[in-house]
Amino acid sequence: MLRLTSNRGFSGRHIVYILFVAAIFMKLAILHSNLHARYIDMNLLDDLIAIGSVMLVSFWTLWLPSRGRGIALGVLNVLLTALIFADLVYYRYFGDFLTVPVLLQAGQVGELGDSIRGLIHPADLWLIADWAAWAAVKMGLRLTRGSGSRRKDRLHGSFGNGSSAYSMGSGSFSPVTFGSGNRRSGGRRFGRLFTGIGVFLLGFALTMGPIRFYTQTWAVGLFENNWWNVSLYNVTGLLGFHYYDASRYLKEHLGGGQTVSAKEKDEIRQWFDEASQRRQADNDLFGAYAGSNVIVIQAEAFMNFMIGKQIGGQEITPNFNKLMDESLYFSNYYHQTGQGRTSDADFASNSSLHPLPTGSVAVRYPNHTFDVLPQILKTQGGYTAEAFHAYEGSFWNRNNMYQAMGYDRFYSKKDFQMDEPLGWSLGDKSFFKQSLEVMAQEKQPFYSFLITLSSHHPYSLPASVQELDTGEFKGTIFGDYLQAVHYVDAALGEFVEGLKREGLWDHTILAFYGDHDNSITDKAVYEQFLGKTLSDLDMHQILNQVPLLIHLPDGKHAGVDSEPAGQLDLTPSLLHLLGIATDSYYLMGNNLFAATGSDRAADRLVVLRSGAFTDGELYYIPSADNLFANGTCYDLASRKPGEIELCRAPHEEAKKRLRISDELIASDLIADFRKEAQGAGR
Length: 682
What we know:
- Mean pLDDT is 88; it is low at 1-9, 158-179 and 596-602.
- The strands form 5 sheets. The chain has an 8-stranded mixed sheet, with helices on both faces.
- Helix content is 51%, strand content 9%.
- 40% of the residues are buried.
- The protein starts with a helix and ends with a helix.
């Protein structure tokens, strides 16, 4: 009798737990099948890591009594399913996984609305298939128990007296039931304890064994370098990645943060000294527009591939195209954003530093010291600096970040009249009009930074403002994107006319660039639109190139610059035009005006946050596993893959730049360098 009871407890407890592990493993496999990342597969070792990691997050449930264990496994199932689903949706938009810094801005998720809904697929219901199966089983058991209870009641009515007599006469069982109760209870507790410990040890071995193998073979240095999150996932699995991310965050914020040695500081200083020398150029453009107003427009998801293109005989960006005739247009300009997307583009363009590999600088380090364009213009040129964005000021922590960046005022959603509700907030036409009304009253010179919003994913504009015939793309997200970009272009045209009416056009440097890609990655759509077959190189450039247009007050120096450039280059280049030297600032970008014509500076290396880079002759695309040898080194002259070793030297420099930028930001080194310089000067 006792042996039978023990066996029933063993089988029930472990079968339920095994089913839990199997269910979560199934969900991890579903997520993986949706990634479609190159060089990322799920082999036997990865399966073991996934199973082991599930055991590591759940082993403790085996220490609980039956009822508590069931509740704990149920809650854990819900939490892990929610995490996996959130990662899946986030990956579809960003090509990356959620991190702690991103989750700290979880309040933003509710604001994303239709953008998130458009990323949820019906097939995602498979993630809760086990819930449906559990509900069906529970319902079946209830029906079975109900039927059995009715039969038992009928039998009890016929044989009640005999059963009672038998029960009363069964005193011989009492020693088993009561006399050994304490021993049985203690034995069960010890059994649960040892079972839980055993599962933990097994889970640890299944997880860490393969990870150790990876990090001692092809993934050497994984945890020492700031690799792409997908590369971390490729080794640690999803749950392991989140454990590592959380521990890294706690170490940064509760453990005193990372430390940089004196030798590393000297190396960083030397690199910035050399970068400053590369930017210097004593040419006619230095200071040619000193004292001019500066207006920088960061356009949401405004990409380069459709510039100058038509659809149905209609120009997609007619106003941008018109401005190109009297402006500098950089046709190989790259966004250098990471997880922070729009906030990363803002940071990179104004600080000339790389965004972080995880999260947003605006959220993680808003109070650290940076050399940013608004602050430099205020201190060196007496500028008034203001930022305009018709959205919630708390989004991407802008209220705090913009104050730290030195803006005199940030005009957010609460400061605008919502007379043209469109998409996420205020339509860009009204946004530009109302922003211009403020600028027209400002003391000159001023620096105005504007962030548009109407071309934000999912690009659904009301029919009343749709003026582009998207033809075969009508009703698709790609067609909606073109429609939204056409509207933003019309808003830009109205803004330029407004600047002319207000008398500001001839005294203003206007810079207009895109912040990041549109998150539409289907190659077939771009091939259909462009009417040609696209290579991997073509697609990589399409998804990473955004336009940069700079209009100078006198309309001179117009033309197309096809040399590689990136968002980090904007601030040093604008400072050159204004005659403000950059040698005392910690800026990483190139000076796009360092030389002109055939004398153009050779060093125009542009490094993307993913580790991809181009110098105008070579173009390197890293693999998802981040192994240099598995990447592809393209010769841009032939647009064909070349010898991988040709890219090794610039690859090492690209890694160095990303590392230096990360250390400078995370360790607040600019503040340290300034303090050390002040101490040395006393």
